[in-house]
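COMPLEX REQUEST
Ligand: nicotinamide-adenine-dinucleotide
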Amino acid sequence: MSTTDAAYWRTIAASIVPEARLLIDGSFCDAADMGRMASTNPANGKPVAELACGTADDVERAADIAERRFRQGVWSRMALRDRMAVMFRLADLVEAHAATFAVLDTLEMGKPISEMLTVDVPGSVLAIRYLAECIDKIGGSCPTTNSDALHYMQRQPLGVVGCITPWNYPLMMAAWKVAPALAAGNSVVLKPAEDASLSAILLGKLFLEAGGPDGVFNVVPGRGAVAGKALALSSKVHKIAFTGSTGVGRLMYRYSADSNLKKVSVELGGKSPQIILDDAGDLQKVADWVVDGIYGNQGEVCSAGSRILVGKARHDDFVDLFRETAMRKFLPGNPLDPATTMGPLVNRAHQQKVLGFIDGAGAEGATRALGGEAHLERPEGCFVSPTLFTSVRHEMTIASQEVFGPVAAVICHDGPANAVAIANDTPYGLAAGIWTNDLTSAHSIARDLECGMVWVNGYMNGDMSQPWGGWKASGQGRDKAIEALLENTQMKSVWVTLSR
Ligand code: NAD
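STATUS: Structure written out below.
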């Protein structure tokens, strides 16, 4: 059987017996109250696993041991080359377990296996390697001062970093959070999302296999409002690194204020614009990028380019090309089949929420130009077909709220200034794309957009050197790049008196 056959992946899926318990202090255990939560395959409604459901007591125990290990220095004071070696081994192990990781995330949240193998797993391996490489590349400074003193500043780890992650890129979001925290010398407690926790647990297991000390990287799956809240409120935790919705992100600041004023970084939602100017080049190439930018990962992407801003002169041609391209590239199907490019949404409630947005858009006067249905041939799965609305005004709900599904809204603009005004008229500020052949338009629009990431003549491409994060209600702080490592450190200034 070949890796291009669905049967190959079904066989692997049937053979995996995933670890589904909490990982605390190097051992797997049940929740303190023996509570469990079910994980369900959104492609067919079948159970995937019964997970241990961590309580507030479990979280506090994990935070306590993580803090103890930090103070003992088993990781925080490990020789940097040794710490690097553990992280490189972890990256190698994740790579070696690529098939298992791919199957776990696909089973739990419905992402096509092909995307796991080409994006999520390699992206996670790269994140761990990149951050490992950065470990001894960050320096302090020694500012010039009077000759009777020596002043130096250095970066030190924070202590315990609590990581809370979403379900849309279960492994990769865990890697983006955990790798910089560990690289900087912190201990970690990771609370993955309810819908997709298994790959996070496996990541913790592999850290131990890589030679990571017990208790330095703990994983506590559980309910957000219980385990997540307890983690963000714990006084043993010195930073909370959160990725998820803007609503829950706001709570992180409250929890911090109500506990120990821990540092907070949040990567949140978005309503990102893809701006097509009248002088954009080959419209078919643009359509390819734009379609991928909204329908990749079923549209369950924080940076999904869900608002498509097109100049009037190119509108009709672009919409035709967009529809053809979307229908050719994105056909919902069994996510374990390597030929599938679009899986189901994460669960039934989310599917119904997305269908509700679609109904609402029609009621508000937008024209449905493509899709908009649940996948009737697969009623047992939580599918929604790729959907496009035209005749959208930017104040409509479909153009202003994050749908987090395969739904795009086309809005007409009157030229670059109007496009920027529409693009910025949102509480969010995560990402944007611009298509133009004019250098001045490209750079001036990139300057004027209120968001953390801008792509010109492309969308969502980039590498680990690109800091990832938003402005405004899309968050604060950065994942990836050296910035992620710096965010997991704190500055210390040392003033040495040299006169006797
Ligand atoms: P969510 O906010 O519902 O959940 C995220 C995490 O927070 C989960 O682990 C959840 O259990 C936990 N949580 C929920 N309530 C909590 C509480 N009261 N206290 C502490 N933790 C709590 O988000 P989601 O539905 O899992 O993910 C989708 C959202 O994530 C979208 O809005 C998307 O845009 C965003 N996202 C952002 C980025 C980014 O980089 N900006 C990346 C991926 C996803």
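REMARKS: Residues 113-134 form the longest helix (22 residues). The chain is about 40% helix and 20% strand.
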